Prior knowledge:
The complex is a heterodimer.
Chain A: E1 9-16, E2 25-32, E3 37-42, H1 48-55, E4 63-68, E5 71-72, H2 81-85, E6 88-91, H3 103-113, H4 118-131, H5 147-159, E7 165-169, H6 177-192, E8 196-200, H7 204-207, E9 214-219, E10 222-224
Parallel strand pairs in A: 3-8, 3-9, 6-7, 7-8
Antiparallel strand pairs in A: 1-2, 1-4, 4-5, 9-10
Chain B: H1 22-26, H2 38-70, E1 73-78, H3 83-99, E2 103-108, H4 111-122, E3 135-141, H5 147-158, E4 164-168, H6 169-172, H7 174-212, H8 214-222, H9 227-265, H10 279-308
Antiparallel strand pairs in B: 1-3, 1-4, 2-3
Helix pairs in contact in B: 2-7, 2-9, 2-10, 7-10, 9-10
Amino acid sequence: MTAAADEIVTFDNVGLRYGADREILSNISFTLFPGSFYFLTGASGAGKSSLLKLLYLALRPSRGVIRMFGTDVITMPRGRLPTLRRRLGVVFQDFRLVPHLSAFDNVALPLRVSGVQEVELDKPVNDMLDWVGLSHRKHARPETLSGGEQQRVAIARAVIGRPDLLVADEPTGNVDPEMALKLLRLFEALNRLGTTVVVATHDVHLLRKVPDSLIMRLDKGQLSDPTGALRYPPRPARRTEA
Amino acid sequence: MNTARPPAIGRTVPRGFASFAGERAAQLVPQARLAGPMPWVIAIMVALTVVAAAGGLALTNLAESARADLAGGATVQVVEAGARERERQAAAAERVLTRHPAVAEVRRVPDAELDRLLEPWLDVGSGGEAVPVPALIDIRLDRAADADALAALRQALRAVAPAARVDAQASWLRPVFSAIASLQLLALVLVVLLAATSASAVWLAARSSLGANRDTIEVVHLLGGTDGQIAGIFQRSIGLDATLGGAVGLALGLGGVLLLGRSFAALDSGMIGGGGLGWSDWTVLAFIPLAAILIAMLTARLTVLTTLREMV
């Protein structure tokens, strides 16, 4: 399978097993295009988190081919993976904030890792914290933040670098419906700027909030794609902003 | 919370070449410093290494000094029971040796000095003849007291002092030199073992710290942190611990060396007096903590890099 230059991610016949157990993901094939918005749904244990881990390069598949930004990540030298990871934004289900760092430093972390100068950090990080309503808690450590506040810090950290691909695992699980909607609007805003967004959720109400989104449904490790829209999707006609 | 698009994602933050290191990066891993065991483990290792290395260097100096002193030294003993004949042969030998071209210095050891040396063991009184004591002549050659030189002296003395025996002074001390060489080897082995132990302690500390901070490391890794960046954080942390421990260990070790030096100096023994440390030796000792810091940082880096390679 050849990857077009404008494909963000292509999975071709990917399988994943842990150790000698049976495959928890089987024959997964799909393509993510720039500027598309995807919801990944499925029951608990369907393999959503494992699929997301493959997407944010925390795991390598047991078989199949994964191409990301035009590069085969299976055969790619390990030393070049950080370059790809810096183009991703990840919202972990358990937030995974660094406990010793303040909210500010957690949000600044991806920028620092990718070599942004300290003088360039303050404004974007403060703006982002202000936008998620946490500017007054910027010096607070994660342990002193509520679950919802931690989640907002995690989301701010994932989007601060304006990633090409945003992967979010149940990003609205710990916030009230109003905050969930606002966070969804953030993802949409990012999506309109060209970021491909993949949101794993079991909240069916959330799916209706983004009308142009595509649904990826996992069932017992198999991706259901009866119309082929995931593997051969219609080219996205989304409006992108400069 | 605002509902408008956040300004921060409306523009791309320019990526630079600032290295993710120093204070900012170090925050990712809790720093125990002197409250933790690592600086103290390194301090003890450095102190022991300094003492062992100082011992080795002192033994080297002692051996070199003794060798230099004894290099051209030889002793002529006139072993004759009769006092008059012994005295005659000794005087004749002294005359021959004084004129011998290979001999630079001749000193007849006075009987009184011999009596003093032997009195504690043989209870020989001054001028006593209960036990016949050989007459001794110390000589210093203008060349090494090797087998050829000694044979020439024996040849020269055979006619005038048939009871004379000629020995190189160094040959009497051969077992001492052999013991010194063994002690030097022991000191070297100790230094190597202590360095290996220090490296092992750092390896354990780095593994333990990696385990305790695994979540943080995984997050930095998944955010695009390189192995080098993450290893650098631990390398810096261990480096600071090693610097603290090295300074404390050097002070403790040098204190111990000075105390031992004073104790040995109080022995007032000619041979031990040659085992003092020179400036070059003190410089070598001062470099031990630097070597410890380098070993610690290198060990930490390699340990972390090896562990990180287990991740995707």
